[in-house]
Amino acid sequence: MGISQKDKDILRALATEYAEIAALPIQEEKRGLWRALNGLKPKRPMVMIDQICWNELQTDATLTLRCEDEACRRHEETLRRKLYQWHHFPVDSVAEPYLLVPKAIHNTGCGLTIQEEVLVGDKTNDVVSHKYVDILQTEEDLEKITIPDVRHDEAETVRRVAFAEELLDGILPVYAEGIDVPVQVWDPISTFKGVENALYALVDEPEFVHKLVARMVWSYTGMLDQLEAQGLLLTHQTLVHCTGAYSDELPKPGYNPEKPRTCDIWTFGLAQMFSTVSAAMHQEFEFDYVNPIFERFGHVYYGCCDPMDYKMEYAAKIPNLRKVSMSPWTDIRRGAEGIAGRFVYSRKPNPAYLATDSFDEALVRKDLEDVRAVCEETGCPLEFILKDISTIRYDAKRLDRWAEIAMDVAYGK
Description:
Helices cover 42% and strands 13% of the residues. By secondary structure, the protein is of the alpha/beta class. The protein has one domain: TIM Barrel. Strand 10 (266-269), helix 9 (279-294) and strand 11 form a beta-alpha-beta unit. Helix 1 (5-22) packs parallel to helix 3 (70-88). The longest helix has 24 residues, at 206-229. It is globular and about 60 Å long. The relative contact order is 0.13. The mean pLDDT is 96.
């Protein structure tokens, strides 16, 4: 069954509007600002907003999907969200003059199936609570962890590109894109054991945990080797963990866009459940295992919600480290002094400020200004990355105002 003229007209109109935005000179200006920041020679702090609670913005008619074909609706959603963000809170996001479609990559996984209970609060929100069952209790259980089998369905990828090209011919070029490869061992472990069980095991069964982590790294490395060998890594990497990935240093010499290498791209790593784990234990059970993987990549972004301010003695030794996350639960000055201008201070402003009964603009501004002042004093390149936005209390204007305030602070207003 072919694409209806109605669906084609909707998508072409959206793509035309987006293409006009992507062609604006400010897009290259923003790319240059990101390159300067990522080269540790920033012109000013950079600002991004990502991981948005789109369900709470659906009251805006411009986000309403009107296509009938399911594949068309996926492209429509992408374009409508890009346009909405540009018109409401563009900050330093860059509109790229093309459309990406994911390559048809099949991954069998590491051999384990999560067992959990889920508690849903807002049925329109995909942020839910999880209670995980411990399925890794014995050394025999560890044998169930396998190396994923990765396969590329090239015919399906060609079909996806052709489908999008038929829709957008003459408006936007279409490219097939590989996948992001974050280096995360403990996030999966937390889903296979449960966070509490895993934390107790660090103390009660350290030798077992060492074997578990080693097995997970073996599984991950086997998957990564396959992705690299088959040319399935990213070729249009503009973001790394919600932050700008533009760099004058990447890709490396010898780059082949048909077969990108790990050294040509960024990766990011995190161990969020280690928020209450000591720096030495973080080194023993995380860095000692994942640093050899980080060594393969061009640049590394490390951290997420896990507070890194008191762990910089160890984190600073991560190979190819370029950005360090400083979550809302870090000590601002201690984090800056630990970074000491050697890496980008990637500040994660508290998304809870957008979830209170009333939106306190003064609090938002002070939080951002305090961080900027400390980073200026300590010589730290700075970015503000607002993410993990679970709710804005269905008040769309809060995101708009946060963006305006953040850009004011970025420009020193």
